[in-house]
Amino acid sequence: MVIMKAGKSSKIYAGLCAALLASALNASPAFAQGATDSWFGLPLPGPATDAQIVRDARELPPIPSPFAGTVPEFDGAEAHRRIVDIVNFSYEARDAGDPFWGRMTGSPSYNKTIDYIEATLKSWRVPGLSRHVVPFYGPERLPTAFQANVVMLDKSGNEVERLALQSAFPLRYVMTAGADGKPVLGAQRVAAKAPLVSIGRGNLVDIATRDLRGKIAVASIPAEPTPFYSEYRQIADRAAAAGAVGLVLAWSTPGNMQIALANCKDIPCVNLGGKDGAFLRALMARAEASPARELVMELGVDTEARDNKTTTILVTKVPGQSAANNIVVFAHADAYLSGANDNASGVAILMSLIKYYSKQKNKYDIYFVVSPGHHSNTQGSKPFVDLNPQVPAGNLLTINIEHVAQRGIARSQFGFLDNKLPGNYDEDPQTYVFMNADSTLREVQLSHANNEKVAKIFRDAITSNRLISPARIVQSTFQEVGPIAQGGGITMQHVETSLLYHTSGDTPDTVSPVTLEGNALFYKTLIDNFSKTSKEELLN
Questions:
Q1: How many domains does the chain fold into?
Q2: What predicted TM-score, i.e. pTM, was given to this entire model?
């Protein structure tokens, strides 16, 4: 049995994280390198990691579509190579020292992604390709540096030793307003050095029954089967309102991944990966029982808020035989951290669809849009609609392709290996394995799910492509397509959110070429079947 660590060299990664956390803010004493008496003999958690998933000879392959191999443009291995290329732009940002690394909209790594997509489409001689500079619809506040150190004191308050937790990654910071009500622009810093208090999972009861005043709150967040639907989004506001001066979200994830989830505003807030989080909890328990030691933590986050930013989108218009209706397909190019599934997978599939449909005689105009996404203040489809205001009225179908091809991952062993809390995070506290299916939390979010004619087209496409078992179609609209949905057309996405969502573990190794091809075939089925009907026929 072998532990697979996806992504680039862990030595490069560890060195970068150590350098960032040691020197980005406030020079501090050298890191402790091994278990010492200062840390009660606990083994140190070590560097940040990518995904840590157990592989063995019993691993089952993903289930292919019945139509696999029928459309050369949808080759999954080729699409997967594009994901590797795109994720490498994130790694370049990480290795260059970008503390909030990934492919954030308007950043150099995002621009490289757009350049790469454009160059690839041009090499295929795709007609109708255009590039547009578009605005942000308001200011944006991003972290520029951060620190997360545990500091051991003696009972006189003298520092004994300190340690940087290397998986630490800041929460996303929302804009603040000044006394005049206008957004505060420029550099801002929030910092705290304070004792720690455990707040359980950070729910309302946890916070109401603890004294958080003047302390850094530590919430233990389960990530099974996905963090997306947990209460983590509200914890920072709750903790700050209860008097906390800082917040740590300690995730129960495999390895020591960096995690980009949740928002914060007025206090320093960081996420911690699984090993750092388990180490911190064990350290807190032992320090509380020690008559000779006191544990505090230093948190600091520097941010910069900027206005009047611009970014770039790509639009490929494939003309049809009739202008009565149109079909629009989106995939956002931005990403937190590695971003292989979210959303290099969507971009890779979008490119496959462009390659195919640019060679076909299509009934309706089809617009393929590489969008700036929703992680920044770019409002999803709004830049495209501003450039093409005629599209919503005639829009029959809009597809948003977003994190769709990650392997299913399941926990095979629950809890710590020896069923004890302290001292076991140096082994993997949770063992995860790949399944032979997609991520479990996958659903079709459909604007007209209650329309039986529309729902039948989706059910048929799902079952014929073996996409979901059982099929789940829910009535839903979503942020990415809001402006285009005002035309009353059908909008859909079928996202999946595994425990690798918005983490450094979202690497190309966890995305399946088989599922990439299967999704492309599913979207083809939808586009082809909707092209046989019309907006008037379906919705009137």
A1: 2
A2: 0.89
DSSP-assigned states of every residue in 11-71:
HHHHHHHHHHHHHSSS--PPPP-S--GGGTTPPP--S-BS-EEEE-TTPPPPPPPTTTTS-
Report the phi/psi class of residue 511: left, alpha or beta, with left for phi > 0 and alpha for psi in -120 to 50.
Answer: beta
196 located within any domain: yes
Average pLDDT, the chain: 85
- The domain boundary, picked from 250, 285, 306, lies at 306
Residue 268's pLDDT is what? 97
Tell me phi and psi for residue 212, to 5 degrees.
Answer: -100, -5
Q: Report whether 444 contacts 462 (CB < 8 A).
A: yes
Structure tokens at 193: 């050095």
Q: In 219-240, which positions are buried (b, 16+ CB within 10 angstroms) versus exposed (e)?
A: bbbebbbbbbebebeebbbbbb
Instruction: Look at the block and give the residue holding tokens 């990518």.
Output: 50
User: Which amino acid, 527?
Assistant: I
CATH of the domain at 490: 3.40.630.10
In the chain, the amino acid numbered 39 is W
Nearest to 405 by CA among 495, 486, 315: 495
Does residue 363 sit in the same domain as residue 490? yes
Instruction: Tell me which of 320-324, 383-387, 393-397, 421-425 is least confident.
Output: 421-425
- Domain shared by 386 and 462, yes or no: yes
Q: Is 222 strand, coil or helix? A: strand
Per-residue pLDDT, 479: 73
- Angle, helices 76-95 vs 10-23, to 10°: value is 30
Q: CA neighbours within 13 Å on the CB side: how many for 49?
A: 19
Q: Is residue 292 part of a domain?
A: yes
CB-CB neighbours of 70 under 10 Å:
11
Take residue 96 and report the two structure tokens written for it.
Answer: 């260059």
Residues 6+ apart with CB under 8 A from 97: 16, 19, 20
Domain boundary among 255, 282, 306: 306
- Per residue in 362-385, pLDDT (tens digit) is 999 999 999 998 888 888 889 999
- The answer to whether the CB of 282 falls within 8 A of the CB of 42 is yes
Residue 490 amino acid letter: I
On whether both 301 and 166 belong to a single domain, the answer is yes
Give the H/E segment covering residue 456: helix 452-464
